[in-house]
Batch of 2 targets.
Target 1
Amino acid sequence: MLPFVVAGGLLIALAFAFGGIDAMSPGNKGTLGFALGEIGAKAAFALIVPALAGYIAFSIADRPGIAPGMIGGMLAANLNAGFLGGIVAGFIAGYTVSFLSRSIRLPKNLEGLKPVLILPLIGTLVTGLLMVYVVGVPVAALLAALTGWLKGMQGASALLLGLILGGMMAVDMGGPINKAAYASSAALISSGIYTPMAAVMLAGMTPPLGIALATRLFPGRFSEQEREAGTAAAVLGAAFITEGAIPFAAADPLRVIPALVAGSAVAGALSMTLGVALRVPHGGLFVLPIPNAITPVLGAVVALAAGTVITALLVGAFKKRAA
C-alpha cells in the first residue's frame, strides 16, 4: 500500500505547487497541475485500498488470493468503506480462498485450473457478495463516524491523541506498537485525514535526533563509541528511521526509553494541537522543501524541535556518567 500512498501524496502536493490550491478543479483541466492531480488522486490513491486488500489476501492465500482481495478492496472503495473495508475484504478473500484451496480436490490433469480459474472466480464471488450485501454499508458507516471524529478533534482531544500516537512511536522503536501507530495513520491518508500521519512521523524522528543531540550536550554520559554513533543516529532520525535510537535504548533501557517516550509524546501532541498535516507516509526532513507535502512547515519544525530538545535533556538527566 505504502508506495501508492507515497507516489500519490507527493504528486498531489506537486499539483498544488504548480497549480495552486484549486489545481484539480475542472476549470484547470489541461494544465500541468490538473494532470499531476489526476495521476495522484484518481490513479495512485484509487489503488490504495485495493492494494491493501489484495496483499492482505495474498499473505493468507498466496497468489490465488490477490484478485479476490483487490476486487473486494475496489468494492470497499466504491462503497465508501475505505481502508477499514479494505482490511475486511482482504481477510474475507484470503481465508475464503485458503479454505477453498484446501477443500477442492481435482484430478491431476485439472489441478492447474485451481489457482488461475476456480479459486479466483469463487473467491471473488464470495468476497464481492459479502462486501455488497453484508459488510460494505456498516463498515462505511463506521469509517464515516471515525473520519468525522478525527476531523473534529480540537484542543484537549487532539493533544491526547497526539500524546498517545507519539508515545507509541518511541516505546519499541520499529516494533509492533510503533508499527500499529504508523500503519493506522498511513491508512487514514486514503480517507483524507493527514494530521495523525504528521504526528507519527515527527514523533518517530524524535528519538534518534534527541539521542544525537544528547551526545553533543552531555558527552560525559556516553562512551566514545556512542558519541560517534550519535552522528549516524542524527542522519537516521532526519530520514524518519526511528530504529536509529535502538542501540542507545538497548544499552540503558530503564533510563533512555522513558526519555524517548516523553519527547516523542510531546512532539506528537504539539503536532496534533498545531494542526500539522502530512500527505505522505514517510520522508522525514526531506519532505519539508516539497510544497504542500507537510503544512504548516513551521508547526512541524516547532513540534520536532521541542520533542528533540526534551528527549535530549531527559536523557542527560537520567543517564549516569559513562565509565
Note: Residues 15 and 21 are 8 Å apart (CA to CA).
Target 2
Amino acid sequence: MKKRVIRFGVIGCGLMGKEFASAAARWCHLTDMDVEPRIVAVSDPVPAAAQWFKDRVPTVEHVYSDYRELLADSSVEAVYCAVPHHLHERIYIDIVKAGKHLLGEKPFGIDREANAAIQAAIDAHPGVIVRCSSEFPFFPGAQQIVRWVGEGRFGRIIEVEAGFWHSSDLDPTKPINWKRRTATNGDYGCMGDLGMHVLHLPLRFGWKPASVRALLSKIMEERPDGEGGTAPCETWDNAILACEVKTADQQFPMLLSMKRIAPGHANTWFIRICGTAFSAEFSTKYPKQVASLPYEPGGEQAWHVADAPYRSAYGTITGSIFEFGFSDSILQMWAAFCDEIAHPGKMRQPFRCATPEEAADSHRVFTAALESERTGATIAIDWRN
C-alpha cells in the first residue's frame, strides 16, 4: 500500500515531543493506514533537546534554534507544538498563519483572551487542520463508553464524574518548574495542565456545564529552586469543580477533578456515567477493565466487570488479549490526526482528536472556576455567546 507521507516539524523537543517521535517510529504497529508521519525538522532553544532528535530520529533533516526558521521551511506540512502555556498564543498563531496543520498541547493559550486570539487565527485560515492533544479517550475502555453514549444506552443521566489525577507533586523535594509559576502556566494552574483531558469526552458528548462551583487548593507553598534555596509555588495544585449540566431534555450534576497531588495515583484518568437504564465506568488505573451496570425496572442492580480487548479507534497488529497502555493511546491519537489531514471530512473512523472549539469551551469552564474561587459563589456559564 502506497502511503501518504506527512512531513512534520516539532516545536518544543521535551517529553511529549519525544513521545511523538516514538509513535512515529512505531507506525508499523498500525494496520491498514494509508498515511504516516515523518519528522523532518525540529526546533528548540535548548541545543541538547533538539540534538536528542538529531541523534535518534533518522528522518530529521533540519535542526533549528528559532521556531520561525522551521515555519519558513516549505518542506514542513504539519507541526506538533509542545511549549509552556505562555508561548501558545504567539507560536500557535504563527504556525496557523504559516499554513501548517497543527496538533498543539493544551490548554491552547494561557488564558481565555489568548485562546480567543488563537481561535481567531484558526477561523481566518479554514484550510489548516488544528487539533488539541488529548490521548486518554483513545484507550479501548474509553472508546467503549463513547460507543455506549452514541447508542443512547444510559437512559436519563443521573450523574457524571470525570477526572485526571497524579501524585508526583506530593514529594516536597521535587524542584519547582514552569507549571508552578503563573507567568508561564497561568492562573488556571492544574486546570490548564490537566483539564482538557477531563473535559474532552463530556464536551464531545454535548455536556457543557451551565454552572460551576470550584474548590481550588494550593497544597505545596514552596519547592526547591534548584540553586540551594526555595521558590514559592504560585499555581493551584488541585481543583474540584461541581457543575450542573442542562441539555435539551435533561439536567444532571457533573463532578470534574484535576489533581497534581492525589496520593497513590501515578497517572489516573477516569470517567463514570450513571444513568437510569445503564451505568458505566472506566479508569486507566485498571486499563483492561470496563465496568457496566445494565438495569431494567424491578431487575437486579449488579455491576459487571469485563476485560476490554485491545481495540481502539485504529486497528493494530496486537492481539485482542493483550494490554493497552499510554504509548498506545498516543499512537492512536496521532493516527487520528494524520487520518484527518489525509482525509478531511472522510476519516477512516469517526472519533476525532480534541478540537479547538472544545479547547475554547474548556477555557469558559476554567475562567468561571477562577471566578467561583474568588467569590465563593456558583458561577453561571452563558454558552449562547
Note: The mean pLDDT is 97.
